[in-house]
Write a structure and sequence with these properties.
The chain is an alpha+beta fold. Among the domains are: 22-126, 434 Repressor (Amino-terminal Domain) (Orthogonal Bundle), CATH 1.10.260.40; 215-312, no CATH class. Helices cover 31% and strands 15% of the residues. A 5-stranded mixed β-sheet has the order 1-5-2-7-8, covered by helices on one side. A hairpin with a 2-residue loop joins β7 and β8.
Length: 318
């Protein structure tokens, strides 16, 4: 026999909602009542809902709802939480929540209360945004990024703080060796010996032309300052400091002889290099000089055109 539930309309013509008695969910009104968990399960099945749907709506873990329906209080975090679950579940199903809670307390009376365990709130949106595998990948990427930043900081610190090597002295005239006075025998004058070959001016060999190297910063149009490498050296060119104190890195690499870098035409650009003597500075098409002496570490040298001219004219200020 199928039970028919009468639906009534309120004054506004809408359906009047009322609490469903537990016996109304059974086909046979004379059938004995089951446990609260079985009543909840029967009411859910009649609604056509699955546990996953109820879990998302009530934000209660699916395994906790399953434990309620299967009368396994030992799988729940505690009586207080279990009573709250019963109240929320019964209210969702349209049952008498107060009666369900009282019946549940009577059913578990005399049982020991399991230790309270923390409840994990289900965040379905977060699971959809980032699956578990992507969380692992994001963690690995973060670790690699931190390691790369550390290596960059160590390299920059080593480049700046390395002890500079004493510069090689420039080859100029060698001093003339002093000869002992020439003795005269009788009236025969002894002609002085021919000048020693070491007293001649040492002329350095003509420098070999630089190879045609790689041009970096070619996208920097109308560049007034160009750096030319006569020997291998690492250069670091930074932009002006931003509001957070950081500076943009325009280039940070080792260039080979013949390579060049076109400096962006910005104010506040600086150069740091491990071999200042190997970096020739060209301004408006004319080579002004080098960034420093050979094998000398230069740190944060201003590449502003006016600062370059000031240094050329003897003003050390940047």
């Amino acid at each position: 026999m199928t039970k028919v539930t009468r639906l009534t309309l309120d004054e506004d013509g809408a359906l009047e909602r009322r609490r469903i008695h537990l016996r109304e969910i059974s086909d046979d009104v004379d059938a004995p009542l089951d446990t609260v968990g079985q009543d909840l399960r029967t009411a859910r099945l009649r609604r056509g809902d699955d546990l996953a749907t109820v879990s998302r709506v009530l934000k209660i873990r699916k395994d906790h709802l399953d434990a309620l329906e299967e009368d396994r209080p030992d799988a729940l975090p505690g009586r207080t939480y279990a009573a709250g679950f019963i109240r929320s579940y019964a209210d969702y199903l349209g049952l008498d929540a107060v009666q369900c809670v009282e019946r549940y307390k009577a059913e578990i009376a005399g049982r020991s209360d399991p230790a309270m365990t923390p409840i994990t709130v289900i965040d379905e949106d977060a699971d959809r945004r980032m699956p578990h595998g992507w969380k692992i990948m994001a963690f690995i990427v973060l670790v690699l990024a931190v390691y790369a930043a550390y290596q960059f900081a160590v390299s920059a610190d080593r480049m700046v703080n390395d002890k500079p090597v004493e510069p090689v002295p420039t080859l100029t005239k060698r001093p003339v060796a002093h000869k002992p006075p020439i003795k005269q025998v009788a009236t025969v004058a002894v002609m002085p010996a021919a000048p020693d070959a070491t007293a001649a001016t040492a002329v350095p060999p003509e420098a070999a032309p630089l190879p045609q190297g790689q041009v970096y910063g070619s996208s920097n149009k109308n560049a007034r300052v160009v750096l030319h490498l006569t020997d291998a050296a690492r250069i670091l060119v930074l932009g002006p400091p931003e509001s957070d104190g950081r500076s943009a890195v325009f280039i940070n690499r080792t260039l080979n002889p013949g390579d060049s870098y076109r400096v962006p035409n910005f104010t506040g650009v600086t150069l740091t290099t491990s071999n200042a003597g190997a970096v020739q500075v060209e301004l408006d098409g004319a080579v002004i000089g080098t960034a420093g002496r050979a094998q000398e570490t230069a740190e944060a040298i201003s590449l502003d055109p006016q600062s370059i001219m000031d240094r050329k004219n003897g003003n050390p200020g940047r």
